[in-house]
Amino acid sequence: MKRKNGIIIAIDGPAGAGKSSVGKLVANEIGYKFISSGKMYRAIAWLCAKNSISLEDEEKVLIMAKENPISFDNEMPEPSLIINSIKLDRELYDEKIATATSSVARLLKLREFLVKEQRRIGTDGGIIMEGRDITTNVFPDAELKIYLDASPQARAERRVSQLKEEGIEADYNQILEMIIKRDEQDAKRQYNPLKRSLDSHYIDTTGITKEKTSEIIVNLFKKVIKEYR
Fold it and tell me: Has residue 111 been placed in a domain?
């Protein structure tokens, strides 16, 4: 059955592989909305930190999520996340929040709740959604599935460069250690761990630019949308 606004492009991969930067480029090129599912988990981690809620208390975390619904505005190509009437941006990319997000993502009941929200947001298509389990769990029926990868070292270098551009000092070795730790957490997560779906297109971004990666995905999109129509 065809979707109302187009197809769903689902992008998975480890932290720092270029999912967000590439996803936004592709969205801008084809006129789709770009949603980072990780922002939703980060928002819950941020909210719990703000309200001193232990991430070990799954019931309280779930209640916090249900009482503070997440929405996205109509900005293009990347809508801003809003929770409890607060628009969050840089707050979500604090390294402590990034680390806490892996703990949040391991909570089964919360994952089930947020997956339903992600499906509600994207089901009509015309959207690019990236995360850790979008191709395997959230949208296993997505018309185009991409798995972006890169070496831990390349991802650490990108993160350090990104933070410096924002005027934030960053230590390469510390960032690399955090990336390796998060990779392990994501891959060994009990529920919906990070893994490549068998029908996804694998792209290693270690030695190529985000522009080239975007071009590859846009070409795949053109092939899929041609058949879809």
Answer: yes
Does 3 reside within a domain? no
Per-residue H/E/C for 101-150? HHHHHCCHHHHHHHHHHHHHHHCCCCEEEEECCHHHHHCCCCCEEEEEEC
Is residue 53 one of the residues assigned to a domain? yes
Express each pLDDT in 170-191 by its tens digit: 899 999 998 998 888 888 877 7
Domain span at 184 = 8-228
- Residue 123, domain member (yes or no): yes
Tokens 């972006």, located at residue: 148
Number of domains in the chain: 1
* pLDDT tens column, 110-119: 999 999 999 9
pTM for the model stands at 0.87
Q: Residue 210: give its domain's CATH number.
A: 3.40.50.300
